[in-house]
């Protein structure tokens, strides 16, 4: 059965899309079959794989206007269910559907050909983000070591707790992943050690972290993951380590 992972943080620019793409590519490198789902009308994940011929997208699939299997595109050995820029119009319609939070779970439940499904959430806690938490086994929170990051984290944990209680009892926090991390700065170290001392969160912090690396920013412009674009970069090393850590905590080894 596929393990579904919601990559979520309602704060913008915290590395959700970069993590979806490169954790996905790392899991593929480790021998797993991976589906990426773009739930963001910014379409960054879709664009980062340079998919422009969008015949079916997540909005249409959720409203049963297009079949899931016909809407999946293949790129770099990854499968992706793309987003479209008018996804917010679809979200508006989805909000009027009975059981609107369960649409994605219902669709994913019908297919079982992937090992991992990684869902890239928009920077909000709207219906699409909640759909991803309802469909997920785990949620993973990428965050930057910066002021105010914790305030957002608290909000995500509270929302996820409500989803778990009311709609998805199997939902677990798969990990908090520091991205764009600069291990040599005192500030970065202080933020991480602060969270590492928090009794609830300390076991949920990835030991791996993703260092700041310009190659991670450049790769999407070439429609590539970090493993294709810069296989010897820090970003490539760090995302592979994070994926291995995730597998050793929660996955079935290949
Ligand atoms: N480790 C890193 N090193 C350097 N740049 C990074 C790193 N991770 C992400 N970035 C860059 O930071 C920016 C924001 O990252 P990303 O788009 O992944 O965040 P996001 O959480 O998906 O944003 P949004 O909330 O808008 O969807 C992008 O320009 C990305 O290339
Ligand atoms: Mg994004």
CATH class: Alpha Beta
Percent of sequence in beta strands: 5-15%
Give the cofactors and ligands.
adenosine-5'-triphosphate, magnesium ion
Average residue-wise pLDDT: 93
Question: Outline, from the CA principal axes?
Answer: globular
The low-pLDDT segments are none
- What is the helix tally? 12
> What assembly state would you assign to the polypeptide chains in this entry?
single chain
Helix proportion range: 40-55%
Keywords:
single chain, 254 residues, alpha/beta, Rossmann fold, 7-stranded mixed beta sheet, 42% helix
Question: How would you portray this structure in words?
Answer:
The chain is an alpha/beta fold and 254 residues long. The chain has a single domain (3-246), classed as P-loop containing nucleotide triphosphate hydrolases (Rossmann fold, 3-Layer(aba) Sandwich). It has twelve helices and seven strands. The chain has a seven-stranded mixed beta sheet, with helices on both faces. The chain binds adenosine-5'-triphosphate and magnesium ion.
């Amino acid at each position: 059965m596929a393990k579904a992972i919601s990559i979520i943080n309602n704060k913008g620019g915290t590395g959700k899309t970069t993590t979806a793409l490169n954790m996905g590519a790392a899991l593929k490198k480790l021998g797993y079959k991976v589906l990426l789902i773009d739930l963001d009308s910014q379409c960054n994940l879709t664009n980062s794989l340079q998919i422009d011929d969008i015949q079916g997208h997540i909005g249409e699939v959720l409203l049963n206007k297009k079949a899931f299997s016909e809407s999946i595109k293949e790129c770099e050995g990854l499968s992706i269910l793309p987003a479209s820029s008018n996804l917010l119009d679809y979200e508006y319609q989805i909000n009027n559907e009975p059981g609107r939070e369960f649409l994605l779970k219902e669709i994913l439940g019908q297919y079982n050909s992937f090992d991992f499904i990684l869902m890239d959430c928009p920077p909000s806690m709207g219906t699409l983000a909640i759909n991803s938490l309802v469909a997920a086994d785990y949620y993973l929170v990428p965050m930057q070591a910066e002021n105010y990051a914790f305030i957002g984290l608290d909000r995500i944990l509270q929302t996820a707790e409500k989803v778990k209680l009311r709609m998805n009892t199997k939902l677990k926090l798969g990990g908090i992943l520091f991205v764009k991390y600069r291990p040599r700065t005192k500030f970065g170290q202080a933020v991480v050690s602060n969270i590492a001392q928090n009794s609830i969160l300390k076991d949920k912090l990835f030991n791996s972290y993703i260092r700041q690396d310009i190659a991670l920013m450049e790769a999407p412009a070439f429609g590539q993951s970090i493993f294709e674009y810069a296989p010897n970069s820090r970003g490539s090393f760090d995302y592979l380590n994070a994926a291995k850590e995730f597998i050793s905590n929660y996955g079935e080894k290949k």
